[in-house]
Hints:
heterodimer, A: mainly alpha, 3-stranded antiparallel sheet, 15 helices, B: Beta-lactamase, elongated
Amino acid sequence: MTMYATRTRNARPEPFTVHVGIAERLGLAHMDWPLAISAIGLIAFSLLTLGQATQNDIPGDPNYFLERQAIYALLGIVGMLVLTRIDYSRFRELRVGIYTFLCASISLVFVFGFAARGSRRAFELPFFSFQPSELGKLLLVLALAGFVIDGARRGSEVQRTVRYLCLGLAPAALVFLQPDLGTSLVFAVATLAVMYFGGVPWTHFAVIGGALAVLVALVLVVAPATGFPLLKGYQEERLTSFVNSDEHADGAGYQQNQSVIATGAGGFTGRGDQATQTRLDFVPERHTDFIFAVIGERYGFMGAALVLSLYALLFWRALRISTLSKNAYGTLVAGGIAVSLLFQTFVNVGMNLGIMPITGIPLPLMSYGGSSVLATFLAVGVLQSINVQAHLSQKGRFAW
Amino acid sequence: MYLRNDSRPQGSRLSLRVAVVGGVGVALFAVLFFRLWNLQVLSGDEYLAEAQNNRTREFKVIAPRGDILDRNGEVLVDNRTSLALQLNTAKLPDDPAEERAELARLGELAHMSLRQVRRAIEKGEEVAAGAPVTLRRDVGFDLIAYVEENQDEFPGVAVQRVFVRHYPDGTRAAHVLGSVGEINEDELKEPEFKGLEPGDEVGKAGVEYTYDRFLRGDPGHTRIQVNALGQPTPGGQLVSQSPTPGDNLKLTIDGDVQAAGEGALSARGLPGAFISMNVDTGEILAMGSSPTYDPTVLDEPTQAQVNELYRDEVAAPLVNRATEGAYPTGSIFKIITALAALENGKITPDETVVDGGEITVGEQTFQNAGGVAHGAVELRRALEVSSDVYFYLLGLDMWETNELQEWAHKLGIGRPSGIDLPEEGETLLPSREWRNQLFKEELTERPWSAGDNVQLATGQGDLQTNPLQMAIAYAALGNGGKIVTPHVGMEIEDAAGRVLKEFDPRVRRKFRIDPGSRTAILEGLHAAAQGGEGTAAGVFGGFPIPIAGKTGTAERPGHADQSWFAALSPYPNPRIVTIATVEEGGFGAESAAPAVLQILEAIYDKRASEVSSAGGTE
């Protein structure tokens, strides 16, 4: 790039060049490297685990899951880099479009989606099936943060809170109807997170919390008792069985029992190829929802703790970026992403370790699945973009 | 506080909110780390054990039962392998319609109706809940091949190689050998079956029961690795411990003598029993009961066979009449009366009594058989011609004392013998005490009377005993006062024939019999069997071996006379007691004595006619 500096108005400019490095060109100069490293470290661990633990899952194609996950990872990393270079602030302007796309894509699943295990949540595309609700987690944060910023001066505090809640819970309800309880919970948490960083008063959260408690009581206790169950049988069983999984050792508790046994059996150093729990099909869904148990059994406490540390790093960097943002929109987006990643990680790992109910939430960047991997990398890309923009704006950087 | 965009959020308020979220994050990660540490590091070993347990299934490999041999090593029972169609009910489809379809398919294969299949399962669950149910034994290879090729259609169905008891000689010694069967719930609680599991086979009767712990053996185990569906994984056989076969049991039974006895009884075509026993050791050479049964049909009897085996209370083929019978014995009891009278000084061997053919006690008249008057008789003659009057008078003489009962009791009448078979019946030695007690309870119309003792003196009246007890009493006479423990188990051998254990049960009781009394009685018995006027001389007159024997003709209410014969051989130093009885067989010499002759011929391996010219050998 050639620049011209002017000493005097009429003087001929004296050319000089600034050498711009490859990092600058790719927009990587102001990337948050720990964040990138944690994300890439996690997907690497995912590839390692899938490569070793799913060899016999698809007869005749030992690398089925590995190859596909690697392609999703590559696409995701490219997507992340692209987003890193884009100023995320433009998403605020596109909030209505994003929100409309979000609701429309989720709704279209009901029409065009294919059913898997009694629920419609994805479109069948060539090569892979696209699950809009996964990308929706990011889209909801981007759109809702925009609405919060935009509506900051309109209406009373209560009106605003109700408006945000409605905007956030509408897509959550759509996802719930697919039915996909886990993802709808992520939507709800992301909504609350954006509102939280948007400054909704503590008292409103207290009211929301109270209402939530009543709702849970209604859904789990009162509705079934009066003969109008709102949850499908398996959903309720999954949600309640973890309380005493031994009692449900044949049904919903079985999966969790086996997952806990697998993790525990891993011990400190792991069982490697002796990991019979996962190798012999005792742990269900081991490439998706229960992949953490596979890690626990194969690589032991050392491996599992390393993975957990990478998630902690990811969460910390995301939260840190929310404080660095050049504008409030970036803070809300980063906060929403940070909290939803934390929520997904805790619920999934907790489910693998038998302390959270089975909700079918994938482990970000670890569970096999194109939509989830892609969406999570895009979210990391948005975080990077916030970080890059903060550096470029040179505004109020404070160190943490 | 609401935000203006494009301005940095207000620092202090935002950092509070961020700090709260950060704190929550730290707490949640701490929970996960703590839980992970707890699971993997603190309780890792437990979960590892659980995982190991999870992936393996143990299959029991059944041990073949030991063989049962006769005293010469001839096989009486061994095993043959058979293929059984088994069903693990836990693996049946959950859906009732699918389950029904599978059971129907199975039934078609096994030639059973759906109802029969269900009943078999129900029965199996009653016997041993949870164990695989055997639907049919002895299935053909074609059926097995079909089931294995179509595993998907038959979840839970397995073919198991099982050992089935095999009886080379059919019914021979069936009552002694007994039977095996699946252990039931009550047996599982018994200490002798400790460590066994539902579905195991144990001895149910006969020596199969008594010596079960030797015959049983130890099952082996095969541990294989399975996946979550319980299917074996390729190359997943982990440990295999082969079963230890049961040890062989050698019996004191002599197969040839046994066959002779059974042949003799079945030739009569009447119910009866026989026993042949060593008078010094109690070793039983042969013991049998008629009618008998084929032990193989106990496995899966047809309805007709069930009726025959279990419902026919008159023929009662499963009953071992030699140990479970309860009969009056007739005159063979007289040796006990004679012993009691001699030992108590009621009479001397040479004292003469006039037998007028009948005596009257109170209002009852007791007659000799056929009303014959034998005139003046002493002990030997009384035994030879079987003078009832002689013994009636002895019974009358002892009716107020308990002397006859004391001696009968001493000789084992009415008492458990200690034989190594689970089948031993109730017997009764009538006594003053017994009848008076019944009278007190108003179960009989009169107290003990002289007539009762007169009846007992000739083995009549309320006496209920069996060939085994009589054999013990005769053995005691023969051996001079030892009550032996009758037994059929001789030794335990391993497969190579090495003796691991010998059974030599000791003498139960010992008492003194005056040699003079013993000699006198034996002389009388010898005369009865082989003397000129002996009651059995017609049968044993030509038998080359000198024996002492006594006929008995028991009057059994509601039945024709029961024939008895007791023999001690050889005379005068007997080694073997042989007793036979034939229900409704008439006089002692009519059917029981010829049966004993056939047994003795087998024992001494000489036909009476062939050696008659050679004269006595001993």
